[in-house]
């Protein structure tokens, strides 16, 4: 579990049954994706074809050990959860992974450009990796079902 991932690898974190379904769609349309589901969704993993899902009991602990092993993270959750859990893990804008937040209906909640002082949802770092995540199938699905919170409104 401590294997260093490529900067192209993405972790998808889901907390709800709808989120598990969306995580399955993302995983089916992207390469190098690891799906993390709340242990409470263990029965959902079979229903949405996520046999390889990893389960967590405490999101904060799992995220802490996995955060810098991925080039990007997609949180299917509220922005508040993603921001509170990732903030203590930030090291610097050139080394932190991109973070994109999507609600459990697949709408993009937001993404952000590196500096923690900005008040824009989500995090995105390493000089544009967040834009690559947004161009991925996960971001494409989110753009079709929602809007970005900054920029194009």
Overall geometric form? globular
Helix content range: 25-40%
Q: How many strand elements? A: 6
Distance between the termini: 40 Å
- Tell me the β content: 15-25%
Helix vs. strand class: alpha/beta
- Indicate the multimeric state: single chain
Largest beta sheet, briefly? Answer: 6 strands, mixed
The number of distinct helices, counting runs of at least 4 residues, comes to 6
What are the SSEs and their pairings?
Elements (H helix, E strand, L loop, with lengths): L9 E5 L2 H13 L3 E6 L3 H6 L6 E3 L2 H8 L5 E5 L2 H8 L11 E5 L5 E4 L17 H7 L1 H9 L8
Parallel strand pairs: 1-2, 1-4, 2-3, 4-5
Antiparallel strand pairs: 5-6
Structural summary, described in words:
Mean pLDDT is 74; it is low at 111-129 and 139-153. 33% of the residues lie in helices and 18% in strands. Strands 3-2-1-4-5-6 form a six-stranded mixed β-sheet, sandwiched between helices. It is globular, with a radius of gyration of 14 Å. It has 153 residues and is of the alpha/beta class. It contains six helices and six strands, in the order E-H-E-H-E-H-E-H-E-E-H-H. Strand 5 and strand 6 form a beta hairpin. The protein has helices at 17-29, 42-47, 59-66, 79-86, 129-135, 137-145; strands spanning 10-14, 33-38, 54-56, 72-76, 98-102, 108-111.
